[in-house]
Design brief:
about 150 residues, alpha+beta, ph1033 like fold, five-stranded mixed sheet, 4 helices, 5 strands, DNA-binding
DNA sequence: GCCAACGTTGGC
DNA sequence: GCCAACGTTGGC
C-alpha cells in the first residue's frame, strides 16, 4: 500500500498506531482493498520520494469501512456522485507492526523481481494498492528482517 | 520538468 | 458504445 511520505509516512503510522486508509479514488485499488481480510498484512510503501520503496509492515484490523471524506464537501476526496445509501468508496483500517531499519528500494526490487512476480515493479504502474504473491512477500520480509 | 501509462469525462 | 481530450500518478 503506497503513501507519499509528505502526506502520511510510516513514522506517522508509528505515532498514531492505527489509521484509516482513506482517500482511495481508483476502482482497481478499491477493489483490492475490498478483498482484504482482517489479519492480512501489508507492506507500507513510500511513493513519490527519493528513493521510493518498502519501509514498513502493517496489519489490516478493520475492513469495509465507509470512507467519510467522499461526503465532505471541503475535502479534496469529496465525490458528489457518491451517496450515503450506496457509498462508492470504502477503506480499511491498518495497524502499525514495524518500521524496517533499512528500506527496500524500488530499484532493488526491480533488480530482483520481474513484473510478473511483483506487480509493483511493472513500468508505469500507478496503482496505490496491489496484491503481492505470498511467496514473494515472505521472501521480501525475510530480506528486510535480516537488515 | 518530462513523460509513460493509465483513468475519467463528455460529446457524438 | 466509441474515442478524443484531458487529468493523475509517480518514476526518472
Amino acid at each position: 500500500m503506497k503513501s507519499e511520505p509528505y502526506a502520511y509516512s510510516i513514522k506517522d503510522l508509528k505515532n498514531e498506531v492505527e489509521t484509516l486508509w482513506d482517500g482511495i479514488r481508483n476502482y482497481q485499488a478499491r477493489n483490492f482493498m475490498r478483498s482484504m481480510k482482517i489479519g492480512d498484512k501489508a507492506f507500507f510503501y513510500h511513493s513519490n520520494t527519493k528513493p521510493p520503496g518498502i519501509v514498513g509492515l502493517m496489519e489490516i484490523i478493520e475492513t469495509k469501512l465507509v470512507d467519510p471524506y467522499q461526503f465532505d464537501e471541503s475535502s479534496k476526496y469529496y465525490d458528489k456522485k457518491s451517496n450515503r445509501d450506496n457509498p462508492r468508496w470504502d477503506c480499511v483500517k491498518t495497524k502499525y507492526i514495524s518500521e524496517f531499519k533499512n528500506m527496500l528500494t524500488l530499484n532493488e526490487l526491480s533488480e530482483t523481481y520481474t513484473s510478473e512476480e511483483l506487480t509493483l515493479v511493472r513500468k508505469g504502474n500507478r496503482l496505490s494498492i496491489m496484491p503481492i504473491k505470498k511467496e514473494i512477500a515472505l521472501e521480501i520480509l525475510k530480506k528486510l528482517e535480516k537488515n
